[in-house]
Amino acid sequence: MGEASDVHNLRSDFLQLLRSRRVSHVPLCVELAKPVKNPLFQDSSPPSAEISSESCPNTNISNIDHLLKEENLYLTTEGGEQGRLPVLILSLKENKHHRRPAVVILHSTNKNKEYLRPLLKTYASRGYIAIAIDSRYHGERATSTTTYRDVWDLIKLADYLTQREDIDSSRIGITGISLGGMHAWFASLVDTRYAVVVSLIGVQGFRWAIDNDKWQGRVNSIKPLFEAAREDLGKAAIDKEVVEKVWNRIAPGLASQFDSPYTVPAIAPRPLLILNGAEDPRCPLEGLKIPEANARQAYEKSHSLDKFKLVAEPGIQHETTPLMMKEACEWFDRFLKA
């Protein structure tokens, strides 16, 4: 009973933090949108191609493009310029009126929802309703190269998805890559409507990285943010103090009560798959030992140890691989189609 209460309090504290950062609360509303012809990439050198279809498991449906239904929407999630959430949905055209499982797929830093189209197509071909959004300050919401970690949009997205007549509200999964994997992790912590979770190269130990001087990989991926903080603090170089102050500023609790040793176990007993590279400098494997042990203990106590899995692919750094894509797809098939 005590452990259940602790998880409830953790979830409540996280939700309270999210609500405290809202500009204003507004009713959720839906607006039709048009496809984006020239999606914005914020990389200094934008990707030359989308996610390779070769790395995405497929059901090999012929003429798949002719069988797909595409929806482009805006959801209003709060007041302010970032309160307009762009949504892209792909699904198979079907005349039958039955509810299907859904998978929310989240992009990595400096990408956008259109970058995920091959994955959306793959999941749609397997019978899912596949959903992608532009994260804050990305894609259609970009006003600068600043990244922002906030899962409020995913709570409001769940509000919308559970109202749709074509989605089985008890079978909604969530996954993401890097920044998206982090969002999937935290969204599933705070919102239990996400029934199955897969995080790709997104889960790490933030406190462990600071204490063990292994923060450089993550910090360098969004370095301008930390350089600005360094200047404000009057320091000659980014150090542990700068890193901790930035995390506390943009994501309070990220390196303390909301870090992975506490929040990963709180997802139990829902199915959770963590896919990382064994040599990933942004998500050091050593920093996941305690979160993994705590998670296994939580899943074992809930008699659901088969619903937790961590795969660290040997020789892989901060990148996704065909093996990861295959593992993710099979995880959703196992737990959303059962």
From TrEMBL:
Query: Superkingdom, according to UniProt?
Result: Eukaryota
GO MF annotation list: serine-type peptidase activity
Q: Note the Pfam families from the entry.
A: Peptidase_S9 (PF00326)
InterPro entries the UniProt entry points to: AB_hydrolase_fold, Peptidase_S9_cat
Q: Which GO terms describe its biological process?
A: proteolysis
Hydrolase recorded as keyword: yes
Q: List keywords of the entry alphabetically.
A: Hydrolase
Chain ranges of the Peptidase S9 prolyl oligopeptidase catalytic domain:
121-203
What is this protein's name? Putative alpha/Beta hydrolase
